[in-house]
Structure formats: structure tokens, C-alpha cells
Amino acid sequence: MVRARITAVDVRRPDLRQPFPKMFARRLTGQTVMALNRRAKYLLASLSSGETLLMHLGMSGSFRVLRTITPNATARDIGAHDHVIFYLSSGKVVVFNDPRRFGVMDLIPIGGLEAHHTVSRLGPEPLSKEFDAAALARACRGKKVSLKAALLDQRVVAGLGNIYASEALHRAELSPLRRASTIATSSGAPRDAAVRLVAAIKLVLERAIARQSSRGAYRDSPFLMYDRQDEPCPRKDCGGTIRRRTQGGRSTFYCPKCQR
Ligand SMILES: [Zn+2]
């Protein structure tokens, strides 16, 4: 998409998780994609108009690139869950597919990105240098919520999902149920737990990226903890049993024996 002009946009339904912005197709048509970036789980396309196209895959969204097909022709390879189709000057066609429609597309006006309600409050990227034990401890200092809930708070760390939070907590031998504040001293300095947890988060995410995509991962289920309740703990010589528990409406999988 980068450096291509959007020649046409076919929006095939009125909404995804929320309605498409006003005049969505018209505001995109004729614009060149100047850059494509990611912040947390948001994909951000900077347009030549100065507006930013914000996209989120939700639970089941995906993009695919088709060979050239002509706009307005009913292409055989467009399916029922293909909701937005971008026709590009490069001849390529980018299709957004989302069976469950939890995805989001929004257009942010010029200068509005930093003030945008979802983007402005995001914490550091988990794989950035800014995200270290000191930063995590500072963010968790005095927090009475569970450590798992803190990790899912996008202001603490951006874009860490439910499954990877469980995997990282297991690797760091930390219970998801302990108070978030326990990884920091009263003055907000990192305890050993914060050091272990940051290292575990980075490792779990790096491995997931190396496996190329979480969508593939859902099918192959390479997770050590996720959806494995009542199975033996994967930690060598632990002998514990994986438990499932609901925290804040989300499932947490953990080993009560080795995660303290
Ligand atoms: Zn265990």
C-alpha cells in the first residue's frame, strides 16, 4: 500500500464493530498512502490528505492482496466476509475480511492522532527499549488490581493480548492473581519479579513473531498454557496442573504450584 494511490474503495456494509466514519470511501479515494505504521494493535496508514486511516483486526480480521481485478466488477474471489476492498494505483487490490466483525476502521483528522481516544493513552511498546523493568514497576506501583489485569491495561504496556499475558506470567513464575503492586517497591523501583516479567513478555512475543502470525498460532495452538486447563504444567519437574480462571471477563490459564 505504501506509495500507492487509492483509486477506489468498496465498503460493503455500514459497520464493523462501529459504523464506518462519514464519507469513508470518498475521503480515502485519490489519497496516496505515505507510510504504514503500527501502534499497539492498531495499523496506521498516513494519507496524503493528512488524515490517518486507523485499522484494527479485532478477533478475526485479516488482509489479503489480490491480483488486479476491475472495480465494480463482481470478482469471483470476493466473499461474504470481505467488507472493505481497496483498489490501488499499483494494480493491487487489498481486501479486508472479518467474519466476526470486531474489527475497526476509522479516519483520524489532521493532527488528531495524539489526541485520539484509543491511541493517545497507550503505554510503551513491549519490544521497545522504553519498556523495561523500571518502566513496568513504575506503572504497577501502588496498583491494587491483579498483575494479569495490569498487563492487559494498554496504558501499562501496549498491545499485549490475553493469551500472551498468560504465557509470560507462567514463564516468569508469577501468579496472575497477585497484586500488580507487588512487582515494585513502595517507591516504584523494580523488584526481581518485574525484571523476570519484562524478559518473559519480550521472549514470548519474539517467539510468536518468529512463528510468523498469531492467526496461524490459533490453529496450531503452540501455547503452553492457553486452553490447556487440567493438563500437567509444562515446566520441567513442576508436577502442577494448569488451572483456568476468569479475571475481568477473560480466561486466565496458570499453574498454582510454580506461579507465585
Ligand atoms: Zn507449574
Kindly describe this structure:
- With 260 residues, this protein is an alpha+beta fold.
- It has two domains: 6-108, MutM-like, N-terminal (N-terminal domain of MutM-like DNA repair proteins, Alpha-Beta Barrel); 133-254, Helicase, Ruva Protein, domain 3.
- It is 21% helix and 22% strand.
- It has helices at residues 24-28, 133-140, 147-152, 162-171, 192-210, 214-220; strands spanning 6-11, 33-39, 42-47, 52-56, 62-66, 82-88, 93-97, 104-108, 243-247, 250-254.
- The strands form three sheets. It has a four-stranded antiparallel beta sheet.
- α2 (133-140) crosses α5 and α4 packs across α5 (192-210).
- The longest helix has 19 residues, at 192-210.
- The chain is elongated.
- 30% of the residues are buried.
- Zinc ion is lined by residues 233, 235, 238, 240, 255, 257-258.
Topology of this structure?
Layout lengths: L5 E6 L12 H5 L4 E7 L2 E6 L4 E5 L5 E5 L15 E7 L4 E5 L6 E5 L24 H8 L6 H6 L9 H10 L20 H19 L3 H7 L22 E5 L2 E5 L6
Antiparallel strand pairs: 1-6, 2-3, 3-4, 4-8, 5-7, 6-7, 9-10
Bound molecules: zinc ion.
Biggest sheet record: 4 strands, antiparallel
Name of the level-1 CATH class of the largest domain: Mainly Alpha
* CATH fold descriptor of the largest domain: Helicase, Ruva Protein, domain 3
Strand content: 15-25%
So, CATH architecture of the largest domain?
Answer: Orthogonal Bundle
Shape: elongated
Task: Tally the helices.
Answer: 6
Strand order of the largest sheet: 1-6-7-5
- What's the average pLDDT? 91
Number of domains: 2
- From the N-terminal CA to the C-terminal CA, the straight-line distance is 46 Å
Low-confidence stretches: none
What is the H-and-E element order?
EHEEEEEEEHHHHHEE
Number of strands: 10
Structural class by sheet pairing and helices: alpha+beta
Structural Rg: 21 Å
Helicity range: 10-25%
Bound molecules: zinc ion
